[in-house]
Amino acid sequence: MANHKSAEKRNRQRLKRRERNVFHLSTMRTYMKRLRKALEGGDLEGAKETLPLALQAIGKAASKGVIHRNTASRYASRVRLAFNKKNAPAA
């Protein structure tokens, strides 16, 4: 338990930051899961709607410092690659 005023404040800040970080991380993961599920189910319309939302959530998580920017770039790349693979016309 914090005994000093400054330690109590740091604890309050930590809790606020953690709550915000968990929100952004959870939102990002949810959109990625929805996109993956739509692609696996063959729902291309649903995937088209979810792709921009997933990319936005990834970018926001990176901009807030929840995930590293290289991690965000990797996630975005993999999401786009999976979408393009399913969306490509059969040759």
From TrEMBL:
Keywords: Ribonucleoprotein, Ribosomal protein, RNA-binding, rRNA-binding. It holds the Pfam family Ribosomal_S20p. One of its GO terms (molecular function) is small ribosomal subunit rRNA binding. One of its GO terms (biological process) is translation. Coiled coil: none annotated. Transmembrane segments: none annotated. SUPFAM superfamilies: Ribosomal protein S20. One of its GO terms (cellular component) is small ribosomal subunit. It comes from the Bacteria. Binds directly to 16S ribosomal RNA. Belongs to the bacterial ribosomal protein bS20 family. HAMAP family: Ribosomal_bS20. This is Small ribosomal subunit protein bS20. It comes from Nannocystis exedens. The gene is rpsT.
